[in-house]
Amino acid sequence: MATVTTISDVVCPYCGCLCDDIEVIVEEGKIVGTRNACILGKRRFLDSQDPTRIKKPMIRVDGGLKEVSLEEAVQKAAEVLVKAERPLLYGWSMTECGAHQAGVALAEELGGIIDNTTSVCHGPSVLALQEVGISTCTLGEVKNRANLIVYWGCNPLQAHPRHLSRYTVYPSGFFREQGRRDRTLIVVDVRKTDTAKLADHFVQVEPGGDYELVSALRLAVNGQKVKSEKVAGVPREEIEQIAGLMWSCQFGALFFGLGVTMSDGKNRNIDNVLSLVRDLNAHTKFVIFAMRGHYNVGGFDEVLSWETGFPFAVDFGRGFPRYNPGETTSNDLLMRGEVDAALIVASDPTAHFPRKAVEHLAQIPIITIEPFHSLTSELASVVIPPAIAGIETSGTAYRMDHVPIRLREVVEPPAGCLPDRQIVQMILERVRALKRKGEE
Amino acid sequence: MEFTLITGRTIAQGIAREVRKTEADFVKAAAVCELDPQDLAKLGVAEGTPVRVSSEHGSVVVYVAASTQAPHLGIAFMPVGPWANQVISPDTDGTGTPSYKCVKCKVDPAAGEKIYDAVALISKALKAK
Q1: Residue A377: closest CA among chain B residues belongs to which residue?
Q2: B80 and A CB contact within 8 Å
């Protein structure tokens, strides 16, 4: 009979919730099911064994990809990177912190630019919190204390499906024994999303109106009169009611998503939301979080910060780390046609960057370290398949509240597939060897 | 008809994003433009038929769908992915982040026009260059 084992307390390597209560059912070295995971997490575990998985390194020869040994692929990758004047090392958000550390060392050795998906995601949020600061705590504290939850410009039911049930609205907490009944939920969005349908108060803001609405709320919270009858499509009475709920709660938690970060005003919207929370702390306890998407996007920001002093978009081109969003960020570099080679790890910029940036990506040699065929691997010169972090190799990842959590290994990777950190380390060693040879 | 385009994550896009980006599942999940049912009626097209979404940054043909996240009159929603990326604004306003939301666009019926899969779409965009 086949041996079936259930591995408990597994951490889900999908979204920024990093749910750590997953049970993975393994039969003869294969994942056959999960318990407690949402549909996204469940697919992440099951699809890791999809038959379309890349199992052998490949390099492009005469337009097609040809299987080669890992050593050959690493050699080719190192040659491409050493030859480049402005190599970009991008991605990183779907792998563990050990790979990030190796990536920073490689970027420094190459004098290249290292950047992650924060750059095209919550980058403006990071700029804002560097200016304003952030009042925050762990998600465990939210679960145990918060009696007012605000989701603004995010739809966790589609993007972070267990966020409400594990951390915010539904769970019973130390001071909130009755769970949902002890909490009020406010949702601010331009659409009546699935999350909004669960809200006690849904505030429908006009697209691009977040800055105005936050400003009106700040007026009301600070005891000033809102003079306009409507602000960003929201009636004055509703603004005053929401401000009253925020003011009078015992412990409030505001979660904002890309609806605020990417709309007109970008980092200035977040400046204002962070400032609203700061204002509220003059009266009550209020905390704020960005709804981080990829499971370890926050981890990269942490690693890069402690290695270089900056959270993303770091340029080593002048021999020291330099950070200037708008200049050293990946999309801007690609739009200017400045990058002449790219190493893409655990990400697919071809699927997620604007058309013009992709047009430049297609012109330059690309190396991908990625377990599946992606739109970027379609353009790549070198493709190296790794072991998947959090499923086939352990490592550390940071939850959206900056709590580091140890990922577990539940099954063996396909033969010959090494962790991302080892592959990056091998490329680094080859780069050093090639540079030494060049100097001789 | 004129709309404000916003893009975002959906469950279907979230499932297809990891493994099946080069396959048909991704087309179903992300080559979609969701309109408020009232706007869809005004546009006069049936759900599941092709529409052309165009902005000053480009244009793309996708399936139209009645939104399950309505009401949102005047807003067109597309899941994040290569189809939306043909029309969103690449301007980062000095922040590094393109404008994936709040982009003025037009949505027009495009009966008979082809909806490309992700690989064909990228190749087509690159060839057009």
Answers
A1: B22
A2: yes
Q: What is the pLDDT along chain A (440 residues), one digit of tens a residue?
A: 678 999 999 999 999 999 999 999 999 999 999 999 999 999 999 999 999 999 999 999 998 999 999 999 999 999 999 999 999 999 999 999 999 999 999 999 999 999 999 999 999 999 999 999 999 999 999 999 999 999 999 999 999 999 999 999 999 999 999 999 999 999 999 999 999 999 999 999 999 999 999 999 999 999 999 999 999 999 999 999 999 999 999 999 999 999 999 999 999 999 999 999 999 999 999 999 999 999 999 999 999 999 999 999 999 999 999 999 999 999 999 999 999 999 999 999 999 999 999 999 999 999 999 999 999 999 999 999 999 999 999 999 999 999 999 999 999 999 999 999 999 999 999 999 999 998 87
Contacts of residue B64, Cβ cutoff 8 Å, sequence gap at least 6: B32, B33, B34, B35, B40, B43, B45, B47, B48, B49, B50, B51, B107
Of A191, A313, A330, which has the smallest distance from its Cβ to B72's Cβ?
A191
B2-128 topology per CATH: Barwin-like endoglucanases (2.40.40)
User: Cα–Cα distance between B120 and A111 in angstroms, integer?
Assistant: 35
Contact B31, B83 (CB under 8 A): yes
Question: Nearest-CA neighbor of A97 among A369, A326, A373, A302?
Answer: A302
Is B95 in Cβ contact with A124 (below 8 Å)?
A: yes
Which residues in A lie closer than 8 A to residue B19 (C-beta atoms)?
A: 43, 47, 50, 52, 372
Domain ranges of chain A: 4-47, 58-120+295-439, 123-290
DSSP three-state, residue B68: coil
DSSP state letter for B73: T
Tell me whether B38 touches chain A (CB under 8 Å).
Answer: no
For the segment(s) A58-120+295-439, the CATH number from 3.40.50.740, 3.30.1330.60, 2.60.120.10, 1.10.287.380 is: 3.40.50.740
Three-class SS of residue B4? strand
Task: Write out the CATH class of domain A123-290.
Answer: alpha beta
Domain ranges for chain B, please list them.
Answer: 2-128
Name the pTM for this structure: 0.96
